[in-house]
Automatic annotation (TrEMBL):
<dbReference type="Pfam" id="PF09511">
    <property type="entry name" value="RNA_lig_T4_1"/>
</dbReference>
<keyword id="KW-0819">tRNA processing</keyword>
<dbReference type="InterPro" id="IPR027417">
    <property type="entry name" value="P-loop_NTPase"/>
</dbReference>
<feature type="region of interest" description="Disordered">
    <location>
        <begin position="599"/>
        <end position="619"/>
    </location>
</feature>
<dbReference type="InterPro" id="IPR019039">
    <property type="entry name" value="T4-Rnl1-like_N"/>
</dbReference>
<feature type="active site" description="N6-AMP-lysine intermediate">
    <location>
        <position position="121"/>
    </location>
</feature>
<comment type="similarity">
    <text>Belongs to the TRL1 family.</text>
</comment>
<dbReference type="InterPro" id="IPR012387">
    <property type="entry name" value="Trl1_fun"/>
</dbReference>
<feature type="domain" description="tRNA ligase kinase">
    <location>
        <begin position="390"/>
        <end position="552"/>
    </location>
</feature>
<dbReference type="GO" id="GO:0005634">
    <property type="term" value="C:nucleus"/>
</dbReference>
<dbReference type="GO" id="GO:0006388">
    <property type="term" value="P:tRNA splicing, via endonucleolytic cleavage and ligation"/>
</dbReference>
<dbReference type="Pfam" id="PF08303">
    <property type="entry name" value="tRNA_lig_kinase"/>
</dbReference>
<protein>
    <recommendedName>
        <fullName>tRNA ligase</fullName>
        <ecNumber>6.5.1.3</ecNumber>
    </recommendedName>
</protein>
<dbReference type="GO" id="GO:0051730">
    <property type="term" value="F:GTP-dependent polyribonucleotide 5'-hydroxyl-kinase activity"/>
</dbReference>
<dbReference type="InterPro" id="IPR015965">
    <property type="entry name" value="tRNA_lig_PDEase"/>
</dbReference>
<feature type="domain" description="tRNA ligase phosphodiesterase">
    <location>
        <begin position="555"/>
        <end position="786"/>
    </location>
</feature>
<dbReference type="InterPro" id="IPR015966">
    <property type="entry name" value="tRNA_lig_kin_fungi"/>
</dbReference>
């Protein structure tokens, strides 16, 4: 271990006990303040140790008020002292350049210091290794340990590599465990092993293994070894090392990164980007420097490779590959891939298991004589030739969306669709998307003026606006600053409220002068609470071609200029030159003066769910479009029931559920379908009875309560469901086996397949897997009607 004694800082029981208290509180939705976290408990094979893993919601890392920023954290309780201890500590979550205020170059220049250590962003999956005092070695992935899940099987492969290394140097697991325990440290490595799972970049044959890239102290606040010490440790324990280089000046660092990005490669190899390690402070007045990372991801050719991989999988599955960029070359690639799979019959099955991705890609590139640098040039040329854009504000009420949109139409004569002007009953989202698409028939740019504050709204636009060669640009009104988010939200609240109350009745749905102040504030607050910031690392937001960050507090004039400037830079064909300051002043002024809404309608606020409420207020449409009647099941109860069933079951039974979780395929809400309208012909009287019950109630009220017991978890590799028994006889269910669908493997498998699985109507190779829910879990759910217009 490192000779540097100063690094050998031990855990303070009081600090860790307090941390655990805060984490535990945050697992309880009702008590959680501003963030929540998920706890999973694991027992370590062959010992009587049990450890807890703590997982924060990804978006919460952008907040400043988390008790720790560790991404990957396991704790245990020392039975002798009763104190909690950190067993494994990952890096503090770090962000990409420009992703958050702290990763803008301005901030980096002022608040970080050398040495800047750069490592290539490795491209496998992260593995943590640490030890317990009795010499038990822990090898785990970000949030799990053992052999009980898809993700955890990474841990198992990681463990095999560790054993191989130990055999090489003739040392034992216990040696490594105690070394790490005594140093109060976690070793962090990247598992790169294409024979197990292939990622985008290549690690075959003797390049495979565990690449040690960090050693963290097991402390609440992030503290990590220098790369030099990491290398020393790697040598001592036979890990693979990762290359690093050092920069002493921020200017050199930036120059290096931007030059490397031009080719997407370094040292002759394609790389995904770099991680930069340095010291940072919280601001010019902060005397303390702490360890701090950020990353600099290259955009191309990596993004294209990822697109190819996704398209290839679609091709194999017989789906229509979807892609927005590099059209020409992607089409050619897919033709090549189709031919390749015809010739290599076994290759497609292997590809689905993530084998041969790189081989296929290289074969194509070679045949075409293309390099990564050529692809980057292609991307730039393509951006220059874009002719259609959809501007998507991501905002809350009163940020100035409409003001900016209106000014843009003044300046450029672009299209502007306001959700608030759409009066269609039902299918409103589709009507809105269609209106946007229609605008693009004759105009180059349209603004999809709606709050789009939730990812599902963004997803819906991506799904429903299909215009050839159109790109999406986010106008992201940023609602966090990573420093003191609560204070920032207060300032946003104040600014937007002031504007909205000054706006008076000049709005379609938020008629501030005639509605009570509290009611309007309630509606606005609902949007603030549900706001999901842009996360370009995953879908749907990864589909944006450009994200323009705006400040909700700043004047719309300033935001307008930011939008125009960035569009001009990225799409010079569309915004050929910057308008003059006078022209922008005039456009904003016109926007203030001229704009009066053409329609007015109501949003009710009682539960801060404007959409739902709005639908319910459409009394006249009430009977007609009911899709199904259901008993809703509280999410936490269902999740607990699954956890309870799985924790009592053998390990191999858990992987399907983990797979659903890891791929975000667990449904966001759970219900038992009582009666789907497709069964109406068989039970017309029952439908009538339910419909009558529904129409007799006030729209907001549930139809009644139903007692339910959850009995059994069942899955078949495509779908997972819980068999439920309805204990209240007045609620008759038309399904042979009443159940809650938990999730399906992918979007091609419809939730209703659960029904076929449970009734044994599917012809299958395998039997269903099933586990009883110990003791059965009872709850009382509300019965309600779900409308046809509702989108998932
Ligand atoms: P939206 O809800 O995001 O569409 O916000 P609007 O564009 O409708 O703006 C809300 C209110 O604030 C309107 O009355 C605007 O005229 C006003 N507003 C927008 N931008 C500014 C600004 O920069 N300064 C001031 N004082 N008011 C603004
Ligand atoms: Mg508006």
């Amino acid at each position: 271990m490192s000779a540097d004694i100063t690094l050998n800082k031990q855990q303070l029981p009081k600090e860790i006990n307090t941390l655990l208290h805060e984490l535990n509180t945050a697992t309880d939705k009702k008590q959680a303040k501003g963030f929540s976290c998920k706890k999973s408990s694991f027992s370590i094979d062959g010992t009587d140790h049990s450890v807890d893993s703590w997982k924060f919601a990804e978006q919460d890392f952008k907040k400043r008020d988390l008790p720790t920023f560790a991404r990957g954290l396991f704790t245990w309780r020392d039975k002798t002292s009763g104190n909690y201890r950190i067993a494994v500590r990952g890096y503090d979550k770090f962000f990409n350049i420009n992703e958050v205020p702290r990763t803008k170059w301005d901030w980096i220049e002022q608040n970080t210091k050398a040495p800047y250590e750069l490592t290539v962003k490795e491209n496998g999956c992260i593995i943590f290794i640490s030890g317990l005092p009795d010499g038990t070695l822990m090898v785990c992935s970000k949030h799990s340990i053992g052999s009980r899940s898809e993700e955890a099987s990474h841990a198992v492969v990681g463990e095999r590599w560790v054993d191989k290394q130990l055999a090489q140097i003739g040392r034992t697991r216990k040696d490594l465990a105690l070394t790490l325990f005594n140093a109060n440290a976690t070793a962090v490595a990247e598992l790169c092993d294409d024979s197990f799972e292939e990622h985008i970049l290549e690690y075959e044959g003797d390049r495979a293994g565990l690449y040690l890239h960090g050693i963290n102290l097991n402390l609440k606040d992030f503290a990590t070894y220098s790369m030099e010490e990491v290398h020393k440790f790697a040598d001592e324990w036979a890990f693979r090392k990762i290359d690093y280089l050092m920069k002493e000046k921020v200017a050199d660092l930036r120059k290096f990164l931007e030059e490397a990005a031009e080719t997407g490669s370094w040292d002759g190899k394609d790389v995904e980007g770099f991680v930069i390690r340095c010291k940072a402070r919280n601001g010019p007045n902060d005397p303390d420097w702490h360890d701090w990372f950020f990353k600099f991801k290259f955009e191309e050719p990596y993004l294209l490779y990822r697109q190819w991989r996704e398209c290839t999988k679609a091709l194999i599955a017989g789906r229509q590959p979807k892609y927005r960029t590099h059209k020409g070359i992607t089409e050619d690639y897919l033709k090549f891939a189709a031919g390749y799979f015809t010739q290599n019959k076994s290759a497609s099955a292997a590809y689905q298991r993530n084998h041969g991705i790189i081989k296929l890609r290289n074969a194509f590139l070679e045949q075409r004589g293309l390099t990564g640098a050529d692809i980057i040039k292609d991307a730039e040329a393509e951006a220059g030739s874009i002719t259609k854009l959809i501007l998507v504000p991501i905002a809350t009420i009163g940020c100035g969306k409409t003001t900016v949109a209106h000014a843009l139409t003044k300046l450029f004569n672009w299209g502007h669709q306001q959700n608030d002007n759409i009066t269609t009953r039902g299918k409103k989202p589709l009507a809105f998307a269609t209106a946007c698409a229609m605008s693009l028939v004759n105009l180059p740019v349209v603004i999809a003026d709606r709050n789009n504050h939730q990812k599902r709204e963004r997803q819906q636009l991506f799904d429903d606006i299909s215009v050839q060669d159109a790109r999406f640009v986010a106008l992201h009104y940023v609602h966090y600053d990573g420093i003191d988010d609560r204070a920032l939200r207060n300032r946003i609240r104040q600014a937007t409220r002031e504007r909205v109350f000054a706006r008076g009745d000049n709005h379609q749905t938020i008629q501030a002068a005639s509605k009570g102040r509290a009611e309007i504030e309630g509606i606005m607050e609902g949007f603030m609470n549900r706001f999901q910031p842009v996360d370009v690392e995953s879908r749907p937001d990864s589909l944006f071609d450009l994200v323009i960050d705006l400040d909700p507090i700043k004047d719309s004039r300033e935001n307008l200029e930011t939008v125009v400037r960035q569009l001009h830079q990225k799409y010079p064909q569309l915004v050929k030159e910057m308008p003059t300051a006078e022209a922008m002043d005039a456009a904003i002024k016109a926007s203030f003066e001229e704009y009066k809404p053409a329609v007015k309608h109501e949003i009710k606020s009682s539960n801060n769910q404007p959409k739902k409420e709005q639908k319910k207020s459409e009394q006249s449409a009430k009977k007609i479009d009911i899709e199904y009647f259901s008993i809703s099941a509280p999410r936490q109860i269902v999740i607990d029931a699954i956890d309870k069933a799985l924790s009592a079951a053998p390990e191999e039974k858990r992987s399907f559920y983990y797979q659903l979780m890891n791929t975000k395929r667990v449904q966001p809400e759970f219900h038992i379908t009582l009666f789907h309208r497709s069964a109406k012909p068989q039970y017309p009287q029952l439908w009538e009875k339910y419909e009558k019950l529904y129409s007799e109630k006030k729209a907001e009220d549930p139809m009644g309560k139903a007692k339910v017991v959850l009995q059994q978890l069942v899955w078949d590799g495509r779908v997972m469901a819980i068999v439920a028994k309805i204990l209240s006889p007045e609620w008759e269910c038309t399904n042979e086996v009443p159940h809650i669908t938990i999730g399906t493997v992918d979007r091609n498998v419809k939730p209703k397949e659960a029904n076929d699985m449970l009734t044994g109507k599917l012809k299958k190779e395998h039997e269903n897997e099933q586990i009883a829910i110990p003791g059965g879990i009872e709850f009382v759910g509300t019965v309600k009607a779900v409308k046809h217009s509702r989108r998932p």
